[in-house]
Queue: 4 jobs
Job 1
Amino acid sequence: MATHRNEGGRGEGEGTEQSLLASAPLEELAARFGTPLYVYDLDAIEREARELDAAFAGEPHLVAYAIKANSAGPIVRRLAAAGCGADVVSGGELEVALASGVLPERILYNGVAKLDDELRRAITVSEHGIGSIHMESVEEIDRVAAIARSLGRKARVGLRINPEIDDLGTHDAIATGHDEAKFGVALADVGLALDRIRKEPSLDLGGLTVHVGSQFTSTDDYRRGAAKLFAIAREVPERSSFRFLDTGGGFGIDYGEGCDARPKDFVRAAQEEQRAAGLAGIRLVVEPGRRLVASYGVLVARVVQRKKATPLPWVFVDAGMNDLLRPALYQARHRVVALGASSRPKSAVRVAGPVCESSDDFGAFELPDDATLVAFLDAGAYGFTMASQYNGRALPAEVFLSRAAEPLVHGRAEVAAWVRGRVGEAAPKNGA
């Protein structure tokens, strides 16, 4: 991959192995499998997970990978093999975790609107069910308890608390711990929620959890959330029987604007607050998603059309907001680089996709005027998992790289299948 940066996504001096993406024949892969094309480095993803695991320095812990970041089976399997559990937010993600080798007791189920059938599955998937159903409202407590009673089972549960922290240092769309967020039990209702759980013999309270937001580039807000969690936990009479305290995820990466905090810094911050609250020894759970996968995936796209314009000319590529939604959804920026060698000077252009929305615009970048293929960097998280077939476009293919094996390929969901799904038997065949 002919670019001028460390494609591993690490800071200077961090780690010793370069990501496979730095040397992967992305142009050959694009020619073989077509574009748009996601390419991932499984080895680097596993290495990132093992380094995070080592940061706990032997203290009781669980790294529960947030499957929503990237639910591809090859990735979840590698992370499970590296010792990760799973944070899931739907029945579909629960099944991906189980099929990928994550043990039920290492699965946590978050979300404000879990379906009854999904809860039944979570409770009955093994003798004791999954590790924890994290309940997010007083009302949900009653529903989970009723379902467990109807099954003659005892559900292992956690209580998600909204720490009500304002002025979070992240985008509003991914800030989840402020006082108007839909997530978690309000601080004023925590006592009521705990009383309700105590009165339900069908519920087994394993611990408490918070999640204040995503893509934090410093540990400040994460520490504030952890401190709130531990302050509440130390006042709970049942704390001595807690199996976990879960400080959530939010570990950021460098999308090109800097990120000083490393995963070990978030772990250290949580452990320091846990010790200060006198709760050392209780298993500490974290729920990283983006941090484990984002830097180790790229989206390869082909230049389709150029257009002269003021103030910048347009470069239209075949990947759009249907393939990589983050820029349109919350103004995220992914660096775009040209693939292949070029002797032509770079100039400023505006890169956009083919979708009929003005927000299908990735921003301004420096590219040579003979660029035919480009790569969107740091696209391993919230890329394919948020993709759609909007405007009748095919889902991208995915390639998973590892030094120990041939590339794994998830083929493209072709447009013809989409057409059949929309019009049924009336769909034209063989171009007729």
Job 2
Amino acid sequence: MTAPTGQRVSHLGVVVPAHNEERHLGDALEAARTAVGDLQVQRPGLGVRVLVVLDACTDLSASVAGRFAAADPRFNVLAADFRSVGRSRREGNRAVLAEAGALGVPAGEIWIANTDADSRVPAHWLTRQLELADAGADAVLGSVEPDSDGMDTGLLQRWHARHRLQDNHHHVYGANLGVRASAYLAAGGFPAAESGEDRSLVRKLRSGGAVIAATDSNRVITSGRLEARAPRGFAGYLLALALDPRGAEG
């Protein structure tokens, strides 16, 4: 299951699930485009695809994603009615794997970077993931930080008091998770769950002996909103922390 140290990634997919994210999606995709550009400067021959999975969207998310797809051939859109972030991630990853497989790319050379539609990745996000992949990582668990813009100062301070942003952290965030396709497939992929699909996948990766790198070197900024899209997701945790600082778990 574990990729040999130094196995070179030749195809990369970015999967972005979205449910009614017209407010944040444009910034998320612009950040992803910048990260793709940074990566392709470093690796000119690398095949890259960004796939937005529009799940039961009733707002203008489709228009936002469509503008990127029309302007940039590296962007694709998949419209669905899953009503499940786990299934959205699963189907998005499946589509990336199918496209790369049709090109004859071995699973060990495919890397899938997962993020969220309310999150902004740094410019070096993908470059750093592949540096760790080249060093032998089967999966990269990145860190996230709530966007301070519009967020209650006390809540932000409580969040930081509970989360040490450093390498070798123990957190798992779907907004910042990269995985080699061979390891992903061996672990059974993301479960089609309403939430917790990221932690479930990482548990399976660990139990299967995958090499996992946890890093704060490619931190993602994610929305500090309290209105949850997925039950028991990041926003749900923030809301619980706001209501009961002692009892929230996450």
Job 3
Amino acid sequence: KRYSGNQYKSDIKKEVKKLGKEKLLKIYYDMLIIREFESMLNSIKTQGSYGGIEYNHLGPAHLSIGQEAAAVGQCIPLAIEDFIFGSHRSHGEVLAKCFSAIDELEENELLKIMKSYMDGACLKVVEKEHKGNIKSLAQDFVLYGVLAEIFGRANGFNKGLGGSMHVFFAPLGSMPNNAIVGGAADISVGAALFKRINRKPGMVICNIGDGSMGCGPVWEAIMLAAMDQYRTLWDKDIGGAPPILFNFFNNFYGMGGQTSGETMGYKILARVGAGV
């Protein structure tokens, strides 16, 4: 029997009333940007060019085409204090979190971040060709910084040393991604526990795939986040369990094997969450 507890049961009219047309257009716009970004990488990787510009990318390109709604949907309600951690397939989440933060921050705050990051090296490149307001400049800044990082360039957000699977931008709440399958789970719980113990605002989202459920550290992280001690031994003013959400991107495969009915010990991934 299918688990239906978290099924989406609304409709567009209700969403327009709740969020407004402008917010829904922003959600759609962010999704389109992420889809085009990933499609561009796919074109460069498979054909050696994009839009008539040739480029030979020798590094990895683990894409998230088709997962744009999950990336943008999780980030739209987040605040600047909220963190996301990701996997080897997290370009979309990085962009979505940064876009969400850009929407929230004031222009002077965005300028301060862009000017101070790596002494403004990334900003100097982007602002040469930019025409528009500070918010759109910040979006171009993020797109350029992420792409330069994927291509291993010095102006990348991590000076090209992290590459595709380790790109992140901490000033806007996008924390380090992890090339190890499920590797972000324990780190995310640690970050959430730090927030709780130190009474810091915000929550943490751990983005990993369905294949990671075959990794022991992921189960360890889930159990650590759900321990009874937070409720029974800690003072109530601490706030209870670490503020973390495990967000599993269920694309039905882990490497070359189907996770449901083949390589894992579950049939419906959502049932795992229902039992914790």
Job 4
Amino acid sequence: MRRLTIEVAGRETASRRFRAAMRGRRQGEYLSFPDLETLHKVLTPRRLRVLARLQRGGPTGVRALARALGMDPGNLARDLKVLKEFGLVTEAEGGVEVPYDEIRLELVIRKAA
């Protein structure tokens, strides 16, 4: 199963994960954002709806997807462009698809040391 974890993570987390990977420990697939504001700019509620619809319906053409979501095809095309830039959507036979079996959004708030 291919799983992506989307997270807000600082440099320390990314460095720790990189060092572990260099020692041969599998780290999984992550998409990290430096802060919550950046995550929200990329993963808007509308784009999350697009991802959820593609996960349920499999590869879908842009026009059919726009109809299913009640969206303007031009707006959808712009959203898909952003999602493709971050690797969340890929081209597939029959349209576009999410290349992951599961996407997790992870937000951890820790108490200061």
